[in-house]
Amino acid sequence: MFTPSELLEINKLLVPENKIVILTHYNPDGDAIGSSLGLKHYLKAKGLEAEVVVPNDFPKFLKWMPEAKKNIIGEYKRKVAFDIINEADVIFCLDFNSPARIGILGDWLMRAKAKKILIDHHQQPEDFDFVYSDTVIPATCQMVYHFIEAMNDEKLVNQDIAECLYTGIMTDTGGFRFRSTSATTHRIVANLIEKGADPSVITSNTWDTNTVSRLHLLALILGRIEVVNDGKVAVLYLTRKELQEYGFQKGDTEGFVNYGLSIVGVKMAAFFMEDLYEDFIKISFRSKDDVDVNQFSRKYFNGGGHINAAGGKSMESLPDTIETFKSRIAEENL
After folding, report:
1. How confident is the model at residue 274 (pLDDT cuts 50, 70, 90)?
2. Helix 140-150 / helix 30-45 crossing angle, nearest 10 deg
3. What angle do helix axes 318-332 and 293-300 make, rounded to 10 degrees?
4. Residues sharing a CB contact under 8 Å with residue 34, sequence separation 6 or more, in sequence order
5. Lowest CB count within 10 Å: 188, 210, 260, 294, which one?
6. Going edge to edge, which strands form the sheet with 233-238?
7. Kind of pairing, strands 304-305 and 309-314?
8. CA nearest 213: which of 172, 255, 243?
9. 123-156 pLDDT tens trace
10. Tens of pLDDT, residues 214-256
11. What stretch of H or E contains 310?
12. Whole-angstrom Cα distance, residue 103 to residue 25?
């Protein structure tokens, strides 16, 4: 958590005359959008206005959250996003550890005159004016709740805040399944439910929203899932042609990698997907126990994340990327 003196300094910055902006990472997920909107609604409850700016569009299944559709999407409104960041006095940086993780917004952030406040749970955070980094906490949404507590403002938590923070915690813990989910996490979730977060409604709005294209793509990859390395590693993939054929929409492949991890005996799953528009392969890694996909991704695939959940990128073709992956896991004896 921020030190008491840092909290005092931050509190002095949170005044109506200051322009406050909230940024989160490229390809925003539930924790990114949930923490950003949760913080926005908290500031609103304090009588402050804040703008949420995201680098690119986010899945429809996250747009039910209060004021999600008011987010400024950088790839669609570059000039608006630039002006907002450039004119900001305070910028909250949520759920990313480096300006490189926010796409086109990164350079603007580094040049901005604003005080920059980081709240994030990824490893190896870069320098910001104020840093609250904790890699043990399973979701940035939980950290935003701790920040609200540290500001002695828990009484301000309302239904809008609760719904947003609950969504981010739920999604980043895989429905409270990942081992980073702690007793403290559950206590916070209980508090959020008491403040108006309805688990059944949030789960339905977030996860019970399958499109036909998603189900077709899921059936395709499950029909050819490959288990290698003595049954310890699962490999899944989708080509650009397949994405186009089934009418892929943003968010359709969310969680696909977890199906590989659900296989008995599998300790690591990797999902490879050709980008729709550019020549690179997006990779999602998941693991169990002490299999560190964060270090693996950093070492071999220009990525990173958490011990049991990470992402990466390859400029090789899809077949070559998968072969490279297989050779690397053999070398690492995963």
Report:
1. very high
2. 20
3. 120
4. 62, 65, 139, 141, 164, 165, 166, 167, 168, 169, 171
5. 210
6. 226-228, 233-238, 268-274, 281-287, 309-314, 304-305
7. antiparallel
8. 243
9. 889 999 999 999 999 999 999 999 999 999 999 9
10. 999 999 999 999 999 999 999 999 999 999 999 998 889 989 9
11. strand 309-314
12. 8
Tokens representing 139? 């979701």
The residue type found at 134 is D
Q: Is 258 exposed, middle or buried (0-12, 13-18, 19+ CB in 10 A)?
A: middle
Residue type, 223: G
Residue entry with tokens 């402050």? 48
- Type of residue found at 121: H
pLDDT over 70 percentage in the chain: 100
- What was the pLDDT predicted at 209? 87
Question: Which tokens go with 65?
Answer: 């959250």
Name the one residue in this structure whose structure tokens are 């560190």: 292
| 108: its two tokens | 């603007």
CA distance 188 to 3: 21
Q: What are the DSSP E strand ranges found in 239-299?
A: 268-274, 281-287
Q: How many CA atoms lie within 13 A of 267 on its CB side?
A: 13
Q: Which two tokens stand for residue 207?
A: 């996860």
